[in-house]
Structure of Ankyrin-1:
Amino acid sequence: MIAATKGHTATVQRLLEAGATVNHKSKAGWTPLICASLGGHMGVVKLLLEKGADVNICSKHGCSPVYAASENGHTDVVDLLIQAGADIHLSSIEYGIVPLEIASGSGHTETVRRLLQAGAPVNHQRKGGFSAVFLASQGGHTDVVDLLIQEGADIHLATTKSGTVPLGIAATLGHTETVQRLLEAGATVNYQNKNGITALLNAAMNGHVQVVRLLLEKGVSVNVCNKDGFSPVYLASQEGHTDVVDLLVKAGADIHLATTKSGGVPLEIAAASGHTETAKCLLDAGAIVNYQRKDGRTPLFGASFNGHAGVVRLLLERGAGVNICDKGNVSPISVASQNGHADVVDLLVQAGADIHRPITEYGSVPLEIAAENGHAETVQRLLEAGAAVDFRRKDGRTPLFFASFNGHLPVVRILLEKGAGVNICDKDGFSPIFVASQNGHTEIVDLLVQEGADIHLATKNGNIPLGIASENGHAETVQRLLEAGAMTNYQKKDGRTPLFGASFNGHAEVVRLLLERGAGVNICDKDGFSPVFVACQKGDTDVVDLLVTAGADIHLASKFLIVPLEIAVDSGHIETVQRLLETGVPVDYQCRGGRTPLFCASLGGHVTIVRLLLEQGAGINICDEGGFSPVYAACQEGHTDVVDLLIQSGADVNLSTTECGSVPLEVAAENGHTEAVQVLLEAGATVNHQNKEGKTPLHSASAEGHAEVVRLLLEKGANSNIADKYDRLPLGIAAEMGHTDTVQRLLEADDTVFHQSKTVSALHSSVKKQRSKDYESTSIQLESIAHLKN
């Protein structure tokens, strides 16, 4: 294989004599003949053919020897292979390319000639509809194109996807000679592909001036647009091909033809793209300087938006309306200010732009927009032009507000030097220093303080800069505000202090700062929630540590009677729970309703916390005020791992202190927690325990239709014939509720059930009460089962 690839004929001869396989294939399916053909090694190809090489074996990708030779223009090899019987119609697998097409696309004229002589179909199209003449035109191989045309190539064969023809691709790529030959052969000069694109459109867009000239000489329609309404002059203007635009204009191009979607015209797109010379050419040709697109935007608008000062100057000189706004009431100077094009702003101001005209639904002006976006030089120019430094939008926000909000220090400095009101608030009471503090812009906060900002100006909800800085964890800003005299214990309308906000959001560094400044560690909000409470709720142990060390009252309950330990347990924060216990909180501290931490952890399924509390000696059978124990709570929610742990630690599974006399097994059965039921039964739970209404766990499971629990209870000895105080059996209740599967389980458990009058009576009484179709179905099934059992 290597010898054939390198063209070492003598070596190939020796190897063949030594028994080398002439048609050996590599992993990619390449044979020695393919390799030699690709390299044009005539001697090796001849030798291999003499030794019986298969001339039509292809690689895995469908590359045959003749294909390989055609790709590289080895005409003598191609001729030899054809004589040896090469199939010139074999194509590559992925694209379906035949030798003629690869040779044409590569510009190998003589190879193309030999393949045509051998009968290669001149109009074969590979996948995607690409023909030999198309590929030759794409490569600008005019000699090949000429040969193919002479042999009958159809120059109007189009590609499948876009419908492009040879003339279109040649014009797109600027192959002037090829375009000339195709036109001489009768190519349709105004042919449009599936997107409506002509040869002239693509030539104009790509700036191929010679091709454009040639097409115009051949009578091409200068104003034919594509499906989006783009004309040749529009596309040439977009790309700044002034020489092409000039040619088209002189040939009668309509410079006011608008695009379909936006309604844009050549001057507008040239201006927006910054093509000064093209814009001048169009204006000289009579383009409307104040033409407005569908959205109302003019050429001046687009040039101003993109900062093209040269175009702006030209348009203004030609009489462009400096204050013409788009349909959103946005002016050229507004968009120039928005994007910080100070030189454009200068030009517009000098031309009479209205810098006080509010735009947008908020009533913004250029100065505010420039300030918001941090364009210091533009802000300076606008102020020098007389812009109102304290202009307020509809929401009351000023340029200083926005510069402070976004942290644009140079802009803030300029505005303050020009006398901006440092304490002007918006409609919600937000001041510049408040929003600077909110976002942690410490340098701006410092500057505003120096200029007299009121650090206690409160918003409508009563918040102040220190409060919002603390909430958001901006330690440096908090430090600066405290140094400026901010009230450490200031309370918002809801009673929350800066320390509360910092604790709630877990900002330990801010908490430390506030505590060092004497923040009240036990000041609560209106609902009685303290800083340490919310820190426990969030599980921020570092913050809890700081607060406890500073004297936080860990027994302080909210107005809902919830204490820090309870909320930490409820939220599953084991580290926080550990820390609170270390501070001396009683492990069996009873919160609202008499609930202990162990009860809360069991109810929430926090097994790691349950284990911790048990290790700390928590009372395992302490019930809440309703008589519910921790194991009862865990069973209610189906936390089997917690149930198991409690039982192993000595929980009484038969403890019945509730008002109705319920036990853990009953509530687990009622809620369908099969695994919990299994654990309880294995631990010795009384399977036939009756509560004060005479209900057993089997009653509860049957009423809710938990068939698997019913099965388990029956297997463990549950008596299905125990009636409650209303004389109802589990079977009757299940039937009444329409639980067919449960009824089936109960019937299968006792073959004598239908011989017991109480059971039959209960069953028929239940069936009579059924009203829905489901109940009727259950009734019929019961009757059928009863008949079978008797």
Summary: The chain has a mean pLDDT of 94. The first helix runs from residue 2 to 6. The two ends are 88 Å apart (CA to CA).
